[in-house]
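Technical annex, item 7. During the second reporting period the consortium partners agreed on a shared format for inverse folding records so that results from different sites could be compared directly. Each record opens with the tokenized structure and is followed by the designed sequence. A conforming record, contributed by the partner at site C, is shown below for reference.
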């Protein structure tokens, strides 16, 4: 039986390998276009890549509540891939027709954001089928692989980058189709999860507070440069190292404990130490922001896994909150600067940023449960939305904390609570 279980585990890992590469391809596409193929396009403040991403992420989240997630995902994959291909065409056209560059870059940002957000939502929803530790492993691996791909390809000239980004978009399309079929086959069930309208207010407060702090600090230190993607990928690499070093005892709680100092540390150093050189402050802030971006994906997967619902709604909501809050933080930095025009603006910005980091830290440290829904639990009297397994999940989580159970032991307890037999658990 152990041999059979090991074989099935090996098959599942083989099935998820294309998913990890596919997510990496979609992230590498964004890295190559935003930082190299069309860096000037990001100067369009109201129509930058991040602003467009916030709009499309929230639109996708709302659409997931109205439409069947299965049908939405079926249509979203070709639409997102076509959007990436079209965006690459607009970006390369802006190189050949500089007089039309603003209009072409605007269209490129809109289509690129649509494609990247669509694929990111699909990958997150696929990872949410797994337990949170597996989801963390593959999400971290995707981020590291994306950086390696970007680093290997970034030196190419514009026309070659255009061809490479088109190939990368097609590879992401193929990887998703292959991995989705294989993962569902290994898990032995159809993906019939639906989206449930719930607002995990603690997660929203956590993401908004931290992103506001990041937006504020971005006015003190120039954050975008050659090393930006590398420093944002470092937290994912750290998580991978710790996962492989102590796989049996690594838990979601461990991940939260890692994320707290990495997320808060960079902002606090820059805010508390005036005059930090940009070559020191920028890597610290980008390292912290990379940890926060990974946490957005992990928390979305954890909430979806705990409630057995599709991750499309929560992921779209979280990404929209993240980008909108960051843009609001940048605006708030300008407003504080105008208010303290005679001096002391940097100190005021630092104090406000520290306050936001404190709020985010308190919320995160209060999350003791590995299967917490971050305040998005259904109301007790809501028969259509309530999760009958919620009390059992809470009890299992209490036991896991008391007896330091491994993630696999927790998963087995959940399967037993669902009435699975030994044969079903081994599947």
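Designed sequence (site C submission):
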């Amino acid at each position: 039986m152990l041999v059979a279980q090991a074989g099935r585990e090996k098959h599942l890992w083989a099935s998820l390998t294309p998913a990890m590469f596919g997510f990496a391809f979609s992230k590498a596409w964004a890295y190559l276009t935003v930082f190299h193929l069309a860096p000037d396009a990001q100067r369009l403040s109201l129509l930058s890549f991040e602003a467009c991403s916030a709009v499309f992420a929230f639109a996708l989240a709302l659409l997931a509540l109205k439409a069947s997630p299965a049908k939405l995902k079926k249509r979203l994959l070709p639409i997102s891939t076509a959007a990436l291909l079209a965006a690459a065409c607009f970006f390369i056209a802006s190189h050949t027709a500089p007089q039309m560059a603003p209009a072409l870059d605007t269209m490129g940002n809109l289509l690129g954001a649509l494609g990247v957000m669509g694929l990111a939502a699909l990958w997150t929803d696929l990872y949410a089928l797994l337990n949170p530790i597996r989801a963390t492993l593959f999400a971290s691996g995707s981020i590291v692989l994306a950086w390696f791909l970007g680093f290997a390809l970034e030196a190419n000239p514009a026309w070659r980058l255009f061809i490479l980004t088109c190939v990368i978009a097609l590879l992401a399309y193929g990887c998703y189709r292959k991995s989705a079929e294989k993962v569902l086959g290994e898990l032995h069930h159809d993906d019939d999860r639906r989206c449930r309208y719930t607002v995990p207010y603690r997660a929203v407060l956590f993401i908004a507070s931290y992103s506001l702090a990041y937006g504020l600090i971005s006015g003190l230190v120039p954050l975008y440069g050659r090393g930006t993607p590398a420093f944002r990928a470092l937290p994912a690499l750290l998580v991978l190292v710790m996962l492989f070093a102590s796989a049996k005892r690594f838990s979601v709680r461990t991940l939260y404990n890692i994320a707290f100092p990495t997320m808060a540390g960079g902002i606090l150093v820059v805010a508390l130490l005036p005059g930090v050189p940009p070559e020191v402050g920028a890597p610290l802030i980008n390292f912290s922001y990379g940890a926060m971006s990974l946490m957005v994906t992990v928390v979305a997967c954890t909430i979806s896994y705990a409630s057995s619902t599709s991750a499309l709604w929560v992921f779209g909501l979280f990404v929209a909150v993240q980008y909108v809050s960051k843009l609001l933080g940048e605006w708030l930095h300008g407003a504080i600067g105008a208010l303290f025009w005679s001096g002391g603006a940097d100190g005021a910005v630092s104090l406000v940023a520290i306050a936001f980091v404190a709020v985010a830290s308190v919320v995160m440290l209060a999350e003791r449960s590995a299967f917490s829904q971050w305040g998005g639990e259904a109301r007790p009297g809501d028969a259509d939305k309530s999760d009958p397994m919620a009390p059992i999940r809470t009890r299992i989580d209490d036991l896991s904390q008391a007896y330091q159970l491994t993630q696999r032991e927790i998963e087995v307890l959940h399967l037993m609570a669902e009435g699975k037999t030994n044969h079903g658990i081994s599947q």
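The chain has a mean pLDDT of 80. The chain has 15 helices and no strands. All partners now use this format for quarterly exchanges.
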